[in-house]
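Lab channel / #folding
Pinned by the channel admin:
"Please post every new chain as: sequence first, then the structure tokens as a reply. Keep commentary short and put observations after the output so the thread stays searchable."

First post following the new format, from NK:
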Amino acid sequence: MYAEIIQPDLNVAFIVSRNGLQTTAEAFNQLEAKLDSLTGRKFYGTYLNGEYRACLLTQDQDEATRLELPSWTIPGGKYLKAKIKNWSRKIPSIKTTFEDMEKFASHDKSRPYIEFYRSFAELILFLPII
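Reply from TO:
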């Protein structure tokens, strides 16, 4: 059901959602508006200590500066991985899947929950574990 993986550090540019989980779509819209094209780009969402960040995997060291966005490194390490198919029709299942994942491993609360928007049809969740 869930797979344990080692995730590398991910260098990203990001926009903080102004109202946490309530305005995630707005944060992603602002992030996407900075780009000429979405083709080939990788998008992540992170949640830690009440703060949600819409993130773009940067293509080089200076991309965040060019986009006039702050940069950050999503910390790598050991994670529990789950997939949600057709996630856009199952938004509430994101939270419930993370909650279920926490029953299978010790959650590392020092690192963020990670959502990887692989496509419009598939979302991959990463729960940081000890």
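NK: The longest strand covers residues 77-85.
TO: also worth noting, The radius of gyration is 14 Å.
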